Amino acid sequence: MSADDVLRTALVVALALGAFYALIGGILTRVSGRWRDGDRVITLRQFGPFVSGRATRPGGWERYSGFALWNRVRIRRSDGGREYLESLGFAAEVAPLVENQIMASFDLKLKGALLTGTFQGRIVRSERRPPRIISVSLTPAKPRTWTRA
Q1: Closest by CA position to 117, among listed 149, 82, 72, 76
Q2: What is the pLDDT of residues 111-125, one digit of tens each?
Q3: What backbone torsions phi and psi does residue 89 show, to the nearest 5 degrees?
């Protein structure tokens, strides 16, 4: 067996072990279902370690996507819907620029029927004329707890 064959075999084995590790970590961290975060009811779906979800908001929606591995859940949230974005303080001219953009991230740990961790939002500065985004910055991390609904 040549050095190239050994390297190829080692690479294939490493990739297979990594995929197996992620699959088992996702299977053991079950977060699919309905969760409550304050007044939001979030429905999460899970396929192995991959998590996606949605929450309906007045005049719009919030979409969630991320990973669940070994009791750790990392999710990003994007917001959409003109009325909902305007209710968050975005001008009508700027709302299309931020629609479906990542507006928050969550770093949570599964503890029984709770997801506890931190929330970090995005602060978007914009101009109305011409409509454009000037800057995006992060808020300080805040504690957050989700409960099973």
Answers
A1: 72
A2: 999 999 999 999 999
A3: 110, 5
